[in-house]
Amino acid sequence: NAGVTQTPKFRVLKTGQSMTLLCAQDMNHEYMYWYRQDPGMGLRLIHYSVGEGTTAKGEVPDGYNVSRLKKQNFLLGLESAAPSQTSVYFCASRSDSNSPLHFGNGTRLTVT
Amino acid sequence: GDSVTQMEGPVTLSEEACLTINCTYTATGYPSLFWYVQYPGEGLQLLLKATKADDKGSNKGFEATYRKETTSFHLEKGSVQVSDSAVYFCALITGNTPLVFGKGTRLSVIA
């Protein structure tokens, strides 16, 4: 029972490099979310999706792009990484608007 | 917009002490309220929830009551253990909007 799986777990990038974070869920959930967690800031929503083929901006979307080509996957892309994007990134999913979120274990990204 | 305010930490308690972490909210409509817990190196896990006024959520000895009159959802436990050391997040949702989180409260329990 995998739940929500994030890859990679850790990554170090140089400023200007690009990368994609992958989130996969095996619970057939409609809704998927990307958050970033920074000290003293709690969790801030980057982008989210309410179903396959849909995406929407959250609180802090600048510098990130997302895609939801398949229901089970939600990709977060950084086209040109900046040190301000150093953070821990969490993916989450849920089945409907009244259900609790299921979280992955996070990706720790450092941009130097 | 909707928001959640929770007490700042860190909170340090001795084992078997009583715990209260305050959480208040501002929301349009009638939100559902949640407490999530994050253990070191892990993602967040749902601890408990309440979906309407006067509901009490409970799990693992933790409780929280949805108080509409004071717009609060304080987390309580009568006797904490070292294994309760974690970061606790209060959150709300209204309708189809994404979950709104508080900034988290770090709890350390010492033996």
Q: Can you give keywords for this protein?
A:
heterodimer, A: mainly beta, 7-stranded mixed sheet, 11 strands, globular, B: 111 residues, mainly beta, 6-stranded mixed sheet, 4-stranded antiparallel sheet, 0% helix
The gyration radius over C-alpha positions of chain A equals 13 Å
As a whole number of angstroms, the C-alpha radius of gyration of chain B is 13 Å
Q: Note the overall shape of chain B.
A: globular
Helix-strand category of chain B: mainly beta
Secondary structure: helix percent of chain B = under 10%
DSSP, total strands of chain A: 11
Largest sheet of chain B: 6 strands, mixed
State the share of residues found in helices of chain A, binned by percent.
under 10%
How many H/I helical runs of chain A? 0
Major β-sheet of chain A, in short? 7 strands, mixed
**Tally of DSSP helical segments of chain B:** 0
